[in-house]
Request: fold
Amino acid sequence: MRDFPSPLIEVSEMIADSGGSSLDLCYQCGTCSGTCPWNLVRDFRVRNIISLAQLGLEGYEGEDLWLCATCNACVDRCPRGVEIVDVIRSVRTIITQAGTSPKTLGAVLGSVKANGNPWSGDSNARLAWAEALQARPFTERSEYAFFACCTQAYDARNVKVGRAALKLLKAAGVNFGMLDGAEKCCGDAVRKAGGQELFDELSDSNIEMLDAKGVKKMIVGSPHCLNTFAKEYPDKGGRYEVVHMASLLAELIKSRKLRPTRTFDGGKVVYHDPCYLGRQNQVYDAPRELLKAVPGLELLEFARNRQDSVCCGGGGGRLWMETPIEERLAVLKLKEAVKMGATTLATACPYCVSMFEDAKTALDLDSFRVADVTEIIADAVEEVRPS
Amino acid sequence: MAEQFEPKIAVLCCNWCTYAGADLAGTSRMKYAPNVRLIRTMCSGRIDPSFVMTALKDGADGVLIAGCHPADCHYINGNHKTMRRFPVLHTMLAQFGIERDRVRLEWISASEGDRFVEVANEMTETVRKLGPLDWKSRTAAGNVA
Amino acid sequence: MSGKKPQLALYWAASCGGCDVATLDVNEKILDVAAAFDIRLWPIAMDFKYKDIELWADNEIDVCLFNGAVRNSEQLHLAKLLRRKSKVMVAFGACASFGGIPGLANLHDRKTIFEAVYGYTVSTHNPDKVYPAPKLKVSEGELTLPDFFDDVFALHQVIPVEYFVPGCPPTPETIMTAVGAIIEGKLPPAGSTIGINRALCDECKRTKSDKPKIERFYRPQEILTDPDKCLLEQGLTCQGSATRGGCGALCPSVNMPCRGCYGPMPSSSDAGADALSAMASIVDASDEKTADEKMARLVDPLGTFYRFTLPVSLLVRSPKQPQS
Amino acid sequence: MKNDDPRIGVFVCHCGTNIAGIVNVDSVAAAARTMPFVVHAEEYKFMCSDPGQALVRDAILKHRLNRVIVAACSPRMHEPTFRKATALAGLNPYLFEMANIREHCSWVHTDKVAATEKAIDLVKSAVAKARYLEPLESRYVNVEPKVLIVGGGVAGIQAALDIANGGTKVVLVERQQSIGGRMAQLDKTFPTLDCSACILTPKMVQAAQHPNIELMTYSEIEEVKGYVGNFTVRIRRKATFIDPKVCTACGVCIDKCPWKATSSFEEGLSKRKAVYRLFPQAVPGIPVVDKDACKYFENGKCKACEKFCEPHAFRWDDQDKIVEEKVGAIIVATGYDLIDPKLPSQYGYGKLKNVITGIEFERINNATGPTAGKIVTKEGKEPESVAILHCIGSRDRNHCEYCSRVCCMYALKFAHLIKEKTKATVYNFYIDMRCFGKGYEEFYHRLLEEGVKFIRGKAAYVTDQALTDAEQGKLIISAEATTLGKTLRVPVDMVILANAMTPQKDAADVARKFGIGRSPDGFFLEKHPKLEPVSTATDGVYLAGTCQGPKDIPDTVAQGAAAASVAMSLIQRGTVEVEAATAGVIDDLCSGCKICQDVCPYSAIGYEVDKRIAEINASLCKGCGTCAATCPSSAIVAKHFNDQQILAQIHALYAQEG
Reply:
């Protein structure tokens, strides 16, 4: 006789208990699957995972589970209020605890555990990227602490974004200071990739360090840091006012502390909304205002933008996982950008920058530029741009 | 573990909105803290400040005054009087030394069963944190021969 | 006791002396009083010793007019003593009837009052922090002072009282009504207030609108009032509508709002709550923000509404400090 | 009977297991026996049943009870029942008091001990109050034999006809210039496919010509005063600038008018004139001048219409008029609105021009509509494929949590009509097919036979961004076919959104005017969801149709008829009992301060000049008790809720024992 699958309610309860309790609200309409951007390039049935998880049936833990880039598009649209990303995270946590998560992710989590960053970077050299800029250390008289994302601290491409940020902050006279390098990864990708325990360690360590220094306000360059500090650290007792570079720059330009006066020479620019900045934190206007403030810059929009924006595919640990070129969302989007006549893609997230730089290489688009809005502003401000 | 303090909450409310809202919470089988007891008047405008004071004096740890939303009174504007009396009553009770959170004014309509539940629970928790009011023994005449 | 003049005692406890002055204020009618009564005790006018009183027979006094609240052990002792010696005990004036102005001390207790009076008030110089002590040993022996209570009491809260004559002070008319009733033996049932049962508005000459509204509250010094219009409608916290009449609306007739010294109406459970409810209900505000703003102008509601009645109010007093 | 020797009987209801399942009713009855003045206490399975009520009557006689307490459900539910039972035993019905141990206790608590304790407390409170209850006299007033119906949609029309045919006068007020409502916009009706106009217009005409119906179109309710049986309603009759007594409705003015405005009846799909009829079969057929669109009102010139008007019906100085009507009952039938289809932004309405709403499709498919009944895209071409997207905004916690009930069926109807008129492939993207009515499931089956494609999965978004050649120039729907577990992209030429039915935009305002509650979904709240579906919190105000919640035409008509019958029964009765628990003045305590006069919402308090005291007009007093709480002299008593009674309740609940 064949082996009939039967529901394992204990499994379902376990998923609910580790943060996926909205699971049971799902009425299987499939909006999530239909919304999920992966389906533009490959089949990914979000609903199926939820359905299997509701009954604790085998299959929920399959390979597809690791696809989700936690872009939150489905959560926004779910008519039932299922926190789908929480369910996915919860399932990933259970699998990770069982030690059967994908190998690449294991290595990344290992690096975070050992070095405090996912890039196998030397934890003692966390501030190396900023040394030349001679930014002041954070003291109790600093208004803000600058919290550099691991990717902006160690990834060669994104280091440039971090440097541009520091130059702009100095030029605008913002009262900020650098942390001393003891900071660790905020833990966003770690948590979303199933490393809940490691996330707890990281957040505890960071909160202890930030509180000891008396940090109240932070500037971050990554929307992932923004989201984690603003929404996840408070549950752990860490309460900080966090501002993303794009929002801060928009303020500085509005208050005329920064004046982008140089004419833009990078052609037409299309802005890509990072999921964690836009959908997750409703910052849509600030980066656009920034770009519009640059003389001569023509701003284009993707057909699906703002809350409907299609993810780059780099969140939730995907940045460190291999995706075939024909299945890369960043590639798809870059093609769209080129088609509409853009020569620059601007964004505001180190993951997006990495994903689009990779896509650019894959598509052999040498003359195309991928830039963080911070870099575009730095180029446009006289005092910052190296002559 | 010490037994947790169960505050006694008096709810002085109108028949048409808040009482009906509590009814709706019932018919919808919502659950809330069993610490509240409703005392019904036809309109929140009927709620004499002395009722609130009597409840506190007698032994209630908190009092909720509740009625229809300001524009929705069954009696056109009876609740406006409640709305006018409350701020000065609240101030006066504070002068007496009664924590502000013990006495609350809320507008809860007949359709807001969920709001009733929320307020009943909030009120119970807030007052639980404040501890017993125990007015009589805290104000009893002490050193009289 | 026929043939003999009724025996009268007057006593003062925690009071300002105003009640006694008011008694003298009846002018030549005091002679009628003197003619009608045999005045046995009156500290403001006559000398006496405790032991004289103690020597009286129980119920030897026909009527005792007791003014002032009770706030220390000496006053309590005299109240009890006079109660024993008197057939009829009258709480005379607002303090004896409701606690009066001294009753506002119920917002504090002995400890905080002493700390203020003997501690930090501007005029105090007391570097050694000497506080009154009921007993003090000196070489001659032990000196005693009356024990100061945490609470201020109305007279009926410590001894049974037959009648109440309200007022701060009772007006001569009120006093003569009371005295007249006693002389003529036309007394109401025990426990009554000798006076009238309607609120002071009934006696007030000022005109009231049909639908009175309060636009905003003023303190008396902030406004020149219309001499003919109801003071409450002009924004003064006149408590005439919640206060027993009998004074002839004395204060409103001289442009001062009634402050409530004749105490609550007979069916009232709380004078302050009554006045508060009435005043707030007619404030011209139809949204919460306006209501909050306008009511915030009513300065010190507790002091306003319980100026004379705190010890007999529903809430009686503020909680005491834990004794350390 | 003397107040000083109360003999109280307490009856504790099990309500099956509704109460007894959580509250230990034996303990409650036992506790009641120990309460002051309680001489009898018992419990019973269903107190509201006939035997339950008989129990009360018998006990009153047997134990010489003079106060009765039933601890059961909400007094808002069964107080009238037990007052009647009390009265049947010869006791004044106001000597009855209820303790709510169901809605306020057993249904909301799970801890049995705490719930039983609370139930005992609630009984204690009722007993304490009962001790001071006083008999009150019931009073009656005559009912004005006329009914106001607000809203001239099919619900209002049905109610008006039913009442008028029964011989009672009706005032039917409609905001638009014609009655007919939403149904007049529809083309066919499901599942029978009758022509909507064909079945509705005869009813409209009947209503207009009925001697008992006074039609007030282009009119709105300004103010409602009064109470059951005696409402006074002020109605604003908006200026039409045409004298209806003179106009022959020939329509020449419409032809001659050179100015145009967007037609709301056509859902903005076409234009109409500045002087216009709402639609060709409008009732009444007399046009109105749209002041905003008419150039004469802008620059004082034109009047082209008037030049051709033979009967000289134009009245340029026409003003809004306020008329007053006295009615005994009111039926509110103000209908529904639709959710702004732009709110669920993922479907591209407003950006993608061939994404249309259901009601727009109704007009497109209608022979009198903007395309004369041709189903075409915005480019004027017959679509090769059409997708109908169900549940747009409905069943969605981001928008409207409820099911709109009619969309599945009209989606089927649309599919049929498209199949009938075009060769298009029709897709239905649905979550669940809800075909609950008579003949509905059969209609669904018919559509399956007609080859309509049903995809079980909610459309996630609509885009015009093609990924393949086949998608070029099409609208693409992304959805998961959940039965297959496959995500699809379906290219079509036209997308019809079945967008949610919502309350009217001014529902809050209307609710306030008539004293109606609203449920969390925003629709008007019926008194009881099952047993009093057309009554409201305000006696004498009834509901009909979709203002109470989404419903189809059969249900709407049925509710219109139901509201008519309830209103009629009130009118036929001729009198209504009015509040007995009014306020009263204790003359000896009143000092005539007049403060109470200001706080009375009904101006029921006057001033007796001779006695210089307040005086309450009992027929105006509604018993809110605000004056009693306000009176600084404690000279006003709120009967049935007097100080003594309420303070006794507070003492019973909170004062320490002894």
Remarks:
- Chain C has three domains: 7-102+151-184, 109-149, 200-312.
- Chains C and A do not touch (no CB pair under 8 Å).
- The CA atoms of residues 174 and 246 of chain C lie 7 Å apart.
